[in-house]
Amino acid sequence: MTSDREEDRDADGKTPRQPEGPALITRTGESEGAEPRPRETGGDTVHHVHHMERYAVGRHTDLLEALRELAESGYQNGVVFRAVGTITSFTLLSAAGTATEYDTPGVLSAAGSIVGGRITVHATVGVEDNRAVSGYLQRALTGDDGLDLYLEYADD
Q1: Cβ–Cβ < 8 Å for 23, 15
Q2: Does the N terminus or the C terminus of the chain have fewer Cβ atoms within 10 A?
Q3: Is 10 a member of any domain?
Q4: DSSP reduced 3-state for 59
Q5: Can you give the pTM of this predicted structure?
Q6: In this structure, what DSSP letter does residue 77 have?
Q7: Per the domain annotation, does 42 fall within a domain?
Q8: CA separation for the pair 113, 16 (Å, rounded)
Q9: What's 69's domain CATH number?
Q10: Cα separation of 43 and 66, whole Å?
C-alpha cells in the first residue's frame, strides 16, 4: 500500500491515494486525524500511519466475491479486516479440510487478512438454537441488510 511516487499521493503529499472502491461494496467512512505513531524496531524508530476504512457490503452479495474485488482494486498486502452482519447461507471449511454448506440464516462475525493477494477469513456464525459454527469462510451470502466490513492497514 505504500508508494514513494508523488503521483500516488493526495494533494497534501503525505496521504497515500487509495484505489477506487469495488462495485460490490461501498466505502462509507474512514478514520480521521490519523497521525504518524513511532514504533520501536530493533533500535530504530519507524513512523507509520494507521488507517481504518468502513465498507457496506451490498444486499445478496457473496462476501468472498466482494473481498476478491477489493483485493483486485489495490488492497493486495498487509490488510486486516473484520466483517459483521447477517447472512442467509454460507460454507465453512474445517481445519481438517471438510467443507460444510449451511442453507440457514446466521449472524456472522469474521476476521481475516489479505496478504500477497491471498484472502483468509476465519468466521463464527451464530445459527438457530443459540448454536455457533466456525471455520474458514468459503462463501457467505448477505441478506437484505448486507453487512459491515472494516479494513485496517498501515503506511509502512
Answers
A1: no
A2: C
A3: yes
A4: coil
A5: 0.72
A6: S
A7: no
A8: 20
A9: 3.30.1330.80
A10: 40
Contact predicate 126/115, CB 8 Å = no
| 39 within some domain | no
Cell numbers given for 65: 466475491
Number of domains comprising the chain: 1
Inside any domain, residue 92: yes
CA distance 82 to 152: 9
| Amino acid letter for position 29 | G
78, three cell numbers: 498487509
- 79, 113 Cβ separation under 8 angstroms: yes
Where in the sequence is the domain holding 70, given as residue range(s)?
6-33+51-154
> Residues near 10 by Cβ (< 8 Å), separated by ≥ 6?
16, 17
Cα distance between residue 69 and residue 75, in whole Å: 9
Tens-digit pLDDT string for the chain (156 aa): 333 434 444 454 444 444 444 456 677 766 554 444 455 555 555 545 578 889 999 999 999 999 999 888 888 788 899 999 999 999 999 999 999 999 999 999 999 999 888 999 999 999 999 999 999 999 999 999 989 999 988 665
Element (H, E) at 71: helix 63-72
